[in-house]
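Lecture 7, part B: from sequences to assemblies.

Below are the input chains for today's worked example.
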Amino acid sequence: MRGPATGNPRMSNELFVGLIGQKFMGRAHSNAWGQVNRFFDLPRRVELQAACGRDADELAAFSARFGWKTHTTRWEDLASDPKLDLVDVATPNHLHLAPAIAALEAGKHVACEKPLAGTLGEARQLRDAAKKAKRSKTFVWFNYRRCPAVALARQLIQEGKLGEIHHVRAQYLQSWGGPDTPLSWRFQKKQAGSGAHGDLNAHIVDLARFLTGDEIGEIHGAVARTFVQERGIPGTDKKGKSDVDDTVLFLASFRGGAVASFEASRVATGHLNANQIELNGDKGALRFSFESMNELWFHDATLGPRTAGWRRIVATSTAGEHPYAANWWPDAHVLGYEHGFTNMAADIVRSIAGIEPVVALPDFADAYETQRVLEAALVSAKERIAVRLSEIR
Ligand code: NAI
Ligand code: SOE
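Predicted structure of the full complex, as structure tokens:
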């Protein structure tokens, strides 16, 4: 059965998905779409219908491995395929805009990788296109929201366990960006938009907004540095310009009054994937670190100084009703990186069917707010000034 090329995405027992991107995120998303009906009871069965990637030689093997029915090297084929209900965009940042807008204009739901775009201008176009495509739903793969420990933190904060939040401190520290790392799209401003900032600060700004439920009102100061100016071009003995930041740090305050610090780096020697956040309120505090992703640390200050202290919660207990726990393994048979994506795929399918996700899903409008914060920090670093978010549209 063929659906309309424009208008309302079909509601049926299947959800036909097309994916653009066959490398890192292509693999993570393929795994999530392939696993989701095995672990979640959902109103629709995901069909891995069409995969798209630039590398024709690898694409056939990729499609066969992950179970995609068809494949193409032209992303335009996905946007125009009437069978598809949802197009999943997992390409470099400069290649989110065109496929996502084409898919929205064809009446499809769109799931797009983070950051929403490399630039604020492109992110705005995506937000506006999503608003115009009234029947389509949009999603952005801020996957860390769906680590059970992070989703639990959100629930505890909503229940008031932290009271009034005063401090948020977030870091995303990696160390793969030294001078020996060859040039790729990730180091080129035209393709990536920015470096560690859009790549890593995007995640922790999203986490901070998600966890607090508050919006950042002002950036007080920021610093951006590029330590490595040129890198080897793969397959040649030449070097090319590496023109994105390697690290960006900034201070901010939330509209509700909390103050925050953010730090993203690709040259933080000693750290591999230290995505970590701590929130301190007048009743308690929470902290999460992705390298121990099943754990949430909670300090309940209402217990008083005699017994209060940091408690380690292994956030995978079915009896404890930890988010997503019942869909996976017995208590503390811990989850990994890929489960965050599968949990998100489940919430996307639910959301398309009109069912509430376990915790809030970011759409293009939401991810645009994160992009405004990123832009404000860049302006702050460039101009050496404080920047109010109301100045960034
Ligand atoms: P990658 O470089 O590993 O893969 C990019 C893919 O895009 C390749 O399969 C390539 O064939 C495809 N591609 C490039 N140009 C194309 C074109 N014109 N037509 C069709 N396909 C094309 O990149 P990676 O790491 O998968 O990143 C992709 C996106 O995912 C980026 O926006 C990145 O920021 C985001 N990302 C998100 C992560 C998360 O935690 N949510 C983790 C890693 C990346
Ligand atoms: C590389 O820095 C990277 O893969 C990012 O692109 C992802 O968004 C992050 O989740 C892990 O690190």
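Note for the exam: The mean pLDDT is 96. Keep this in mind when comparing with the next example.
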